[in-house]
Amino acid sequence: MSHTLRHPALLSVLITAAFLSASAPFNASAVSFSSSSSAASVQATFSPEQIIAFSKKVEKTMAANGARVTILARMGRPAAEMPPGMRFTHAAFAVYSEITTSDGRKVPGYSIQNLYQLENAPDRSELVQDFPVDFFAGVSELEAGIIVPSWELQQRLLKVITSPAYAFLHESSYSVIANPYTLGRQNCTEFVLDVINSAIYQTTDPKVLKANTKAYFEPQKVDVNPFKLMLGSMFVKEVSLVDQSGTPITATFESIARYLQKYDKGSVVLTVKPD
Fold it and tell me: Distance between CA atoms of 188 and 23, rounded to whole angstroms?
């Protein structure tokens, strides 16, 4: 069955330093890992065996849905600590690929294409590829959010992700509550949204992308006391208000899911939990 992409243009706290942030890639040989963008390390919540089993279940779920490219999300903070309307703390692209193992074998699997904060400079970010076990290593809860776009949009996303456009869309100045309507600051979810819109509109022109984002994408309002938020922006590098006016807004996995369900006919949103 074919899917048709409904092109939008044609269809007329004190936030903690870790809040909505991306954690550093997991080092399987390390006893601890960075659970957030901060330098602090904590003990792993789940055993390597639990992480491996859950990662395999996520991969099997994506494969069972015929997914070549998905938007994958994890819970880096307990649900009780998240503001209203937000559950997942980090989102990235999962791309079905041929993966070379440490012993030189080539096996099919999903690589994860992330925007991560720099550990020694949390107000900056970089693009990093890792794998499902790395992706879920530092979670607070074993739960994954998955958006499987329509087949047409998956093909367009793959073209962007495998082209120079992908790196061009990256803004290295990081803010945990980056405004998705403006340029100059970006977090992992805004980057995902920018790549999605680049695939939809088939352009990397930032003015075109932001104009259409503002016209069709409904962001998540950040319900945090303004005074506490101001203090956070003063003392925590990765919290910035320079791109905000009025009530702060940001992109989230949930708001991206709503966006694609509205405009991308055939897209599916899934949740995966342990057996």
Answer: 11
